[in-house]
Prior knowledge:
Layout: H1 3-22, H2 35-41, H3 44-61, H4 71-121, E1 125-129, H5 140-152, E2 155-159, H6 166-187, H7 191-200
Parallel strand pairs: 1-2
Amino acid sequence: MDKKFIYLNTTIIVLIILVFIFGDYFSPIEMKFQYWWNTKNFEWEILVMIFIVSPILSAVISLKKIKHLNYKIKISRVLFFINSLIVLFLVFQFTKFYLNTKTELTKRENELIEIAKKDIKEDNVTYKFAGGLKLPLFTKENENKIDSIQKKYGVKYVNTGCVVDLTEIQAQEKYKETVKPYLDKRNGKNWENIMETEIETLK
């Protein structure tokens, strides 16, 4: 068997595994890398299927006579060719994913910038966050007082539920960037700390 193609096949198999596992991290969405979560939750069966079908297909194709090459050499070369196509396909898929996500993110960021400008004019800035079910940490009376305190500083906090949309979370940063200068000018420096201190006194 051609040693050069043994090395090439080993290299490209490792490349397939790396692209398959880490491809999602080449994304416009900022994600903290968590190796265990990523390797635990992606579809291992697809990767296993690739490494089963690829050699079988190579063996079948290599049955055809190709010049003067013997069967083992043909398998190694055909396998390299097939695996190279798989790498190209994976790269294409992740590139497509990146571009689609980037387009979606940019569109949502622009929408939130316009919403932020409108909220500034109405003095009604709304911070949205995903936090699951809201627990009754305060009495109804204190919750009303908290709302009044936040209203005094021109902000409102809305819990959007337990569904986490990474695109939406990152797009919300544009909203915050847009309203921050306005709130700082409106309320003065360290207004968030002052507001939190007022809320803490209600506990």
